[in-house]
Design a protein that fits this description.
This protein is mainly alpha-helical and 339 residues long. The protein contains 13 helices and five strands. Helix 3 packs antiparallel against helix 4 and helix 8 runs antiparallel to helix 11.
């Protein structure tokens, strides 16, 4: 079973790193002027998700919260175990804030899409400042969380106490943990990760519904091609709205383990095995729904040895971002910039 989860982490983390590197490249070099501003948020997404996937591969977390207690045990099975325990602790401390920042970034993405329907696009500098602002809580967590980890000689007896059915001497990963989750750094990390998930998820669906309502009210004055383009936009919004559900499921598994309802290696491994799907799959929505990116990928698969060739934009208008029925859809700059 442990081998299954290790292979799972390796596959999805490597795929996620590859997808996000490709998305970073396309956001920088293949974004048309109409989405140049929004591309800043795409880059923020891709960089965050890349580090999340890379760190997941590096540490591969098995989380074991002591049922009904304030002790949390971690077994880190990634390549960090071949370096040092401290390297694993730092990797874990940096990994968790990536998850939180990614979720906040998704909310920012939807918020900006709603904003752009009513106001002109923000400059890239303003968007960078906003991204840095929402990064502060996660960055603080990353710089402080490692201080709450207990050394092996303290955490091992507690692990045996709470999980006597497990043979910890046979574990090949790095064993670490938090003796008291009420330690200020640990408490801050738990609240920063768990509390925002469901309110953010609700806010995303509210914003999605507002965007759908706004676009629906404008369909009477739209051409068939424009309506088709907006239909593509709504599909993208729907799929992206469901991305945080992976993190939500991970939080539910954590609460189940913490409450003691189910004590099982499957639940303990599943918490972050499910969460890794969020950064790994997120780039696919941009690959498919952002027309210039989709065209570029088609060129890669069609002519893999000509990737370095100049990219030819075939749209008749700079605002044609989605494609429907093989014809470019003429949609306004504000509508197209949102995605």
């Amino acid at each position: 079973m442990h081998a299954f989860f290790e292979i799972w982490h390796c596959i999805w983390a490597l795929l996620g790193c590859s997808f996000n590197l490709m998305l970073i490249y396309m956001a920088i070099y293949k974004s048309p002027k109409t989405i140049r501003s929004y591309a800043t948020l795409i880059i923020n997404f891709a960089v965050t998700d890349f580090f999340e996937c890379a760190l997941d591969l590096f540490i591969q977390i098995r989380l074991m919260p002591a049922p009904g207690d304030v002790t949390v045990i971690y077994i880190l099975n990634g390549s960090c175990k071949y370096i040092s325990q401290f390297a694993c602790k730092i990797g874990l401390s940096l990994f968790l804030p990536c998850i939180t920042h990614s979720v906040w970034s998704l909310l920012l993405s939807f918020g900006y899409r709603y904003y752009i329907l009513h106001y002109s696009a923000l400059t890239r500098l303003k968007l960078v400042k906003i991204v840095l602002l929402i990064l502060i809580p996660s960055l603080f967590q990353g710089l402080t969380f490692w201080t709450s980890f207990a050394p092996l000689e303290i955490i091992l007896p507690l692990a045996k106490k709470w999980f006597p059915q497990y043979n910890f001497e046979a574990e090949t990963g790095v064993l670490t943990g938090i003796v008291d989750i009420t330690h200020w750094a640990a408490t801050y990390a738990v609240f920063n990760i768990c509390l925002p998930i469901f309110p953010i998820y609700i806010a995303i669906f509210i914003l999605r519904q507002k965007i759908i309502t706004f676009l629906g009210a404008k369909t009477q004055s739209m051409s068939p091609d424009t309506k088709a383009a907006h239909s593509q936009l709504l599909k993208a919004l729907t799929i992206q709205a469901f991305i945080p559900i992976f993190m939500g499921i991970g939080v539910i598994f954590y609460l189940i383990a913490q409450s003691g309802l189910i004590v099982s290696p499957i639940v303990e491994n599943a918490i972050f095995s499910i969460a890794i799907l969020m950064p790994a799959l997120s780039p696919l929505t941009y690959f498919y729904f952002v027309r210039p990116y989709r065209q570029f990928l088609k060129r890669i698969f069609k002519n893999p040895f000509k990737v370095s060739a100049a990219y030819v934009q075939r749209t008749g208008s700079s605002s044609a971002m989605f494609q429907s029925g093989g014809h470019p859809s003429q949609i306004g700059t504000q509508a197209t910039t949102v995605l």
